[in-house]
Amino acid sequence: MLAQRAPADKKSATTSFVDPPPPPDMADRPNYPAPHELEKGMTVEIEQSEDAEPIVGEVGAVLEEADPEGTVVKLKSGVRGRVRSVTHR
């Protein structure tokens, strides 16, 4: 007598790929503009420190590469800080 194989479950025969959720610490981080998205003359909102009020101004220079805390720029006024958002392109 030959052994019979159990019928394959159709659900397990197909594999679906789903992107896993980001790690908990990454999921809570805001999505700040990357350096390549910033150009001289754009109007941005920056933060100098967590306690200070945000400042809006025109980008004079992008000073640092991508950082999870936000790209550091120098505004035309001379103020430096991390970009939180682009307010006008």
Automatic annotation (TrEMBL):
This is DUF2196 domain-containing protein. The lineage of its organism: Archaea, Methanobacteriati, Methanobacteriota, Stenosarchaea group, Halobacteria. Residues 1-38 are annotated as: Disordered. It comes from the Archaea.
